[in-house]
What does this fold into?
Amino acid sequence: MIGGFILGVWIARHLGVHQYGLFNFVAAFVYLFNPLATLGLDNIVVRHLAQNTTPKNVILGTTFWLKLVGGVLSLLLAIGSIVLLRSNESLTLSLVAIGGTSGIFYAFDTIDLWFQSQVQSKYTVLARNIAFFGIALVKVALLILKAPLIAFAWAGLAEIGLSAIAMVGMYQLKGDKIGEWRWQGSLAKSLLKEGFPLLLSGFTIMIYMKIDQIMLGQMVGDRAVGIYAAATRLSEAWYFIPTVIISSVSPALYQARDRSKTDYYRYIGRLLRLMNAIAVAVALPITVLAPQIIQFCYGAAYLEASSVLVIHIWAAVFVFMGVTTLPYFIAEGLTNLTFQRTFMGAIINIILNFFLIPPYQGVGAAVATVISQAIASYFSHAFHPKTRKLFWLQTRSLLFLR
It folds into this structure.
């Protein structure tokens, strides 16, 4: 993460505000279609693997082929959609085609799901770090040579492809063989049925996480996206923390539910308090030092981003909550409610962006993000009887009460 951040700042300085804005507009646009590449299967597959209810080679093989088809569909939809929005911009079209191809490689993240289920994510980390450091050297060379924007898009795709190759290598070194994976039609139908609400939820999550940059680009311009993206890169860089922690502890959470409801809810409460403590510990100093941080990282050209950062960083509190509570919805069989809460958040985000972006630009988009995240990941739980207990656990965790 540190290496990626340093490279990202260097690339932002090299490209300038306008081109950096275009780069991030395209990334946000491609991300909108990424849920189709995962089909909402990740947490469900981890649960199946942890419970050992179906042979692992059948689960992994079926998941791989489902994700591969989803990746191709996400690429086609991304290209078709950008043609409708910016058909006269050849560079934008090329960037979307390159970035969208990454969805096909996400099929190999099936291996990561196996490592997660066995609490062996260190192998995933090692594989991805091999890819990162290999391509980081390429990106440094591109920066020294003052390469054009499209070269960095190709480098990003190469990193994802190399990560997939390294993941396969780790899996094989552990004594497993991809050639033993098997497809099972009945399991595919079951996984798709169970994952469909999470797929829809994934789309809505991407909408309220990335629609701000797309709306900024369409309503104001790519320069506004560049300013906003500089701030959100600093803000969202911390989002890996809950993802890493929850991916490691979710199998234990599922087992705790089977053992004791008391232990189960105590476990969730402890996780929420931990996540809130981390989020606040990150947000407070960044809020105080935002102008100095932006000046140091990006230079004077991006100084406007500091006003965006002091607002957007507080979305971390609710993002951390959302990631932490996802295993609860899966364990309780409430995946349909994850779609409802995120759909509501996405609609509110779009409406707020529509009214706030024209007068306030990036600051308005940041306000819309924080409000919509709070509603989707926290306040919405108060209105449904099956999630009200979770709401009170979250409330107590915000007050750091046991």
